[in-house]
Design brief:
Helix content is about 40%, strand content about 10%. It is of the alpha/beta class. The chain has one domain: Uracil-DNA Glycosylase, subunit E, CATH 3.40.470. A 6-stranded mixed sheet has the order 1-3-2-4-6-5, sandwiched between helices. A hairpin with a 2-residue loop joins strand 5 and strand 6. Helix 1 runs antiparallel to helix 5 and helix 5 crosses helix 6. The longest helix has 17 residues. The radius of gyration is 16 Å and the shape is globular. About 45% of the residues are buried.
């Protein structure tokens, strides 16, 4: 069983993090200045922790919170188009109890899945610096270590793919070289975990048809099959 108290303590530690001055300044400026469509809302403006089922067998790894998505709502993939696309697919395959989530307090429940990001603060232009990536990397590794039932990691995009293997290496010491090549539907294994890749559900990918609902549902279903095959 996952140590829920330890997971909650890690969540609190993530929320209080101020290790990256550039990200702190940016996330707080965005939260203060806002955009017109959200001008009446109070932004979260802090690091965004992972969330989901503490007994999950699937860990989904994104890149970072969106400036006016997770940085506004306080929950990763909540309140932006990427999250709309992701949660619709998760609901369709039985990993979420509803297809839409717009607020952190809307009752969304993930089933056998936990969602986190490689970087916990919204970065300018959605591009974290290598030093910021490295500062955040221990959080994902620690989450992975605490989520004792996780057997499958599903990174969204090449950035998440790299973060997933770094987390596995930090947790288990297994760091395959050369690193398995990322691609949509790519499968690999390391440290006793299966890894299944997906294109990121960014609007750049979903609007162009590079990633469709059918494609995302397919990799989510595959991740669920691999998790079920572990028998845990």
């Amino acid at each position: 069983m996952t140590d829920r108290a330890a997971l909650a303590a890690l969540t609190a530690e993530i929320v209080d993090c101020r290790r990256c001055p550039r990200l702190v300044e940016w996330r707080e400026r965005v939260a203060r200045d806002k955009v017109a469509r959200f001008r009446d809302e109070t932004y979260w403006g802090r690091p965004v922790p992972g969330f989901g089922d503490p007994e999950a067998r699937i860990l989904i790894v994104g890149l970072a919170p969106a400036a006016h998505g997770g940085n506004r709502t306080g929950r990763v993939f909540t309140g932006d188009a990427s999250g709309d696309f992701l949660f619709a697919a998760m609901h369709a395959v039985g990993l979420a109890d509803r297809p839409v989530s717009r607020r952190a307090d809307d009752g969304l429940t993930l089933l056998d899945a936990y969602v986190a990001a490689a970087v916990r603060c919204a970065p300018p232009a959605n591009k974290p610096l290598p030093s910021e990536r490295d500062n955040c990397a221990p959080y994902l590794a620690r989450e992975l270590g605490l989520l004792e039932r996780v057997r499958v990691l599903l990174p969204l995009g090449a950035y998440g793919w790299g973060a997933a293997f770094r987390a596995i290496a930090a947790t288990t010491g297994d760091d395959p070289r050369p690193r398995p090549r990322f691609g949509h539907g790519a499968e690999a294994s390391a440290g006793g975990y299966a890894v299944v890749g997906s294109y990121h559900p960014s609007q750049q990918n979903t609007f162009t048809g590079r990633l469709t609902q059918a494609m995302l549902r397919g990799v989510l279903t595959r991740a669920h099959e691999l998790a079920a095959a572990t028998g845990t």
